[in-house]
Design brief:
474 residues, alpha+beta, Outer membrane efflux proteins (OEP), four-stranded antiparallel beta sheet, 10 helices, 6 strands, OMP_efflux, TolC-like, transmembrane helix, transmembrane, membrane
Length: 474
């Protein structure tokens, strides 16, 4: 009898150990999943819409205000290009005025000049002046501004592509996060099913008066089930928030009933090419490289534009003026000019030269400094972007191997758990073996889900780093 009591006490202690270990481990995973979901979810919006990843990306790109802003940046540079192109054409200025006119008679100056004529304002005058200036040679000012504006347009277009890449990557991250959350939820439900089954067995043992029955263990199981349900509810809330985040990025209104088309994470099916191919593509396709290349051209052109201010601007022009008054006689004498009653025109050639003592030099130095700032950015990009490509490539290769290994591990852990539970039910196994098997299964299954997510995201990051993601949606 003493031996039986000792044995029961030992078994009871082992079961308590199992419940404590399982409770702690699963609580950790549930809290980790719930917190992660809340961190990745943002914004709101809600009708029944089911969209695939490609459809989500297309919609998010269409409505993105960030892309819209970048497109208007392109319009800014197009406007500057229009201004630079128009500088080749003549600039025409017209001035027309009218007002009261003092009287002026021919006899006031002929046959002799009368110097004591009183001013009598009893009429009105009108005049119009036209000035036309056509640049001939500007020492590269106009052509430099044209080059800068053209490169600016290409920089802005690359900026649109950069924003588009950002939206694509963000959408993929949200989409895959929802899928991973659903898979984690299924893992929680799987554990919950095992827990419910264990509760039913424990209740039945107590009901039939089994010597192995223990109400304390039943209470612990029910407590554990309540914690599982609480975390399951939190996980459901996290999934809903993540869906709302994706909805918001696609511009749908609040209250839209939405879900994604896929139900579970699967590894990326596309076979990656050699890393050297991605390196080459990043140089050709990455929007930052395009921006830097064209930006350097623009900055260099602006240096030339500032240097042109050292030299005069040559131009030809035409000046014409006509005026008439109701109370003034017209005098045809080239030595006498009447500002209120005349008509003349002239063609001329001229130069405009602004001479300063350091202002132009300062502007040239400023333009050169801006150019060298971009040079340094390019040096950084030349090192950082290839590293980013290689890192994403190696991350994908690592996660690819991890998927295989963790799949083997969780399948074997599941078999181990089933065998351990069966041995324990028959009285030939101990609680510690069951706890170890349960711990290994939960850990390996969660790691497998995470590895699949990492495989998807590392490929998405690889496409982002090379600029190939833009090619996929065009």
């Amino acid at each position: 009898m003493v031996g039986d009591k000792s044995q029961k006490s030992e078994v009871k202690g082992q079961k308590n150990s199992l419940f404590v270990i399982s409770y702690s481990l699963l609580s950790f995973y549930l809290l980790m999943i719930g917190g992660w979901l809340i961190d990745t979810a943002y914004a709101n919006d809600n009708q029944k819409i089911v969209l695939s990843l490609d459809q989500c990306i297309k919609k998010a790109v269409e409505v993105s205000p960030e892309i819209g802003e970048s497109r208007y940046e392109e319009e800014v540079y197009k406007s500057k290009k229009l201004q630079a192109d128009s500088a080749d054409y003549p600039q025409i200025e017209v001035l027309a005025i009218a007002g009261p006119s003092p009287e002026a008679k021919r006899e006031y100056i002929s046959p002799s000049i009368n110097t004591s004529v009183a001013t009598t304002i009893n009429g009105i005058f009108g005049s119009a002046d036209v000035t036309l200036i056509q640049p001939i040679y500007t020492f590269g000012k106009i052509s430099s501004f044209k080059q800068a504006a053209s490169s600016g347009i290409r920089v802005a277009k690359a900026g649109v592509d950069k924003r588009t890449s950002d939206i694509i990557l963000r959408t993929k991250e949200l989409y895959y996060s929802i899928l991973m959350a659903k898979d984690m939820r299924n893992l929680i439900l799987e554990v919950k099913d095992d827990l419910v089954e264990s509760i039913k067995k424990a209740e039945k043992q107590i009901e039939i008066g089994s010597p192995w029955a223990d109400e304390i263990n039943l209470f612990k199981l029910r407590t554990f089930l309540g914690e599982v349900d609480r975390n399951l509810n939190e996980t459901e809330k996290g999934i809903a928030l993540a869906k709302d985040a994706l909805l918001t990025s696609m511009g749908f209104s609040r209250g839209t009933d939405f879900d994604i088309a896929d139900t579970s994470l699967t590894p990326e099916k596309k076979i990656p090419e050699d890393v050297s191919v991605y390196m080459r593509n990043s140089i050709e396709l990455r929007s930052e490289f395009v921006q830097l290349k064209e930006g350097l051209k623009a900055r260099n052109a602006l240096i030339d534009a500032e240097k042109s201010n050292y030299y005069p601007q040559l131009f030809v022009g035409l000046k014409a003026s006509v005026a008439g008054a109701t109370n003034r006689d017209k005098v045809d004498n080239p030595y006498i000019y009447d500002p209120l009653n005349h008509a003349y025109g002239a063609v001329f050639i001229g130069i405009k030269w602004s001479i300063d003592f350091g202002i132009t030099e300062g502007r040239v130095k400023e333009a050169r400094a801006e150019y060298h700032k971009l040079i340094e950015k390019k040096r950084f990009a030349d090192e950082a972007i290839p590293f980013q490509v290689r890192r994403a490539y190696l991350d994908m290769k690592e996660s690819e191997k991890n998927i295989v290994e963790t799949e083997k591990a969780y399948k074997n852990a599941r078999k181990w758990l089933i065998a351990a539970i069966a041995n324990f039910d028959m009285g030939i196994g101990d609680a510690k073996e069951v706890a170890d098997a349960a711990m290994a299964y939960i850990q390996m299954k969660a790691n497998n889900i995470r590895s699949i997510y990492n495989h998807r995201m590392s490929f998405a990051n690889l496409l982002y780093a090379t600029g190939m993601d833009i090619q996929e949606i065009k």
